[in-house]
Amino acid sequence: MNPSEPHLIRLHGPWEVTAGLDNSPQRVRLPDSIEVPQNANVAVSSLHFSRAFGLPTNIDAKSVRLIVEEIGGPGTLDLNGEWLANADAGDDIAIDVTPMLRSRNRMTLRIQIEGCQSITPFRAVRLEIT
User: What highest taxon heads this organism's lineage (predicted)?
Assistant: First the structure.
């Protein structure tokens, strides 16, 4: 690895998704398109995508940026329960999360999905460590 290039950790793989106020998460593999849950009794207006990750180790890091490419709809991003950003459909988010990182972390992306049958929540999510 070239020392001037950031070290990348891709946050693919297992994510948990919950629909609106539903507290029973489903495991999904992202990035991918998923079907929006349809429930005749409850109108689902948002999906919450959540993923845990550990503090990067064995890397001499001065800063860690969280990158989310092409948000699938209007929504918000938080880390460890703290708001990071609002985004519109198609937006990218790039934010320095160095001071917020803990030994175990959880990021959550909440996307409004009214009127959608399926959604791709993002194109890619990664940590860039420099």
Answer: Bacteria
